[in-house]
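EI: anyone free to look at a 237-residue chain?
SC: sure, send it
EI:
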Amino acid sequence: MSNRLHDGHRQRMKQRFLREGIRGFEPHQIIEMLLFYGIPRKDTNEIAHALIDNFGSLSGILKASYDDLLNVKGMTPGAATLLCFCGQLIREYFDSEISKDMILDSTEKMGQFILPKFLSEHNEKALLVCMDNKCKVLHSSFVSEGSMNATEIHMRRILEQAIRNHATAVVVAHNHPSGFAIPSMEDQQSTRALVNALHIVGIHLVDHIIVSDGDFVSMRSTPSLSALFKPSGEQDI
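SC: here you go
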């Protein structure tokens, strides 16, 4: 009898979605319906509420790691995989919607282009965006994973990527997965080193963007840090 009740509830939820769309659903109902496909033959309402309680919101759930999801009572490996997949699917959707030949001539456009690439990323990564002299995007890719500081940054790979893609200007971005989008002293040191290395081969570092929790900070647009973007030989005296 219990399974038939669950089957009836699931069918009503699916019919409601097909009839009305997702707009009228509460966040826990959206997660509950997703879990239908990861936890068969079981009431997923209680698990959906537990996920909301643990991660605070729908977006928090879809950005959570596989291991953190599995720590919630009632979750299964299949359900955790499904939620992780959905979170990364959203990233790929937004990334594919953004034109690859955008003109990144403002901080806002840089953020619009860069933020989706870091959705659901739980490890610190560095992204390089190669551009021409009109700030048109030529190529973008992740160039390193792990802590990004002046000694560990993959300078050679950044230079190789920029030269290979005939860039005259680049933007570098990296994320702070467990912190705030506030440039650290290490971020400042790596920026100075990058500016000088790129300057030698005639490439301009336009900005260094720090990403965290759906927000970003432009180091170049931060008054106390803007001087970092001048090569050492061109510092104000």
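EI: Residues 2-95 form a domain with the DNA polymerase; domain 1 fold (CATH 1.10.150).
SC: 👍
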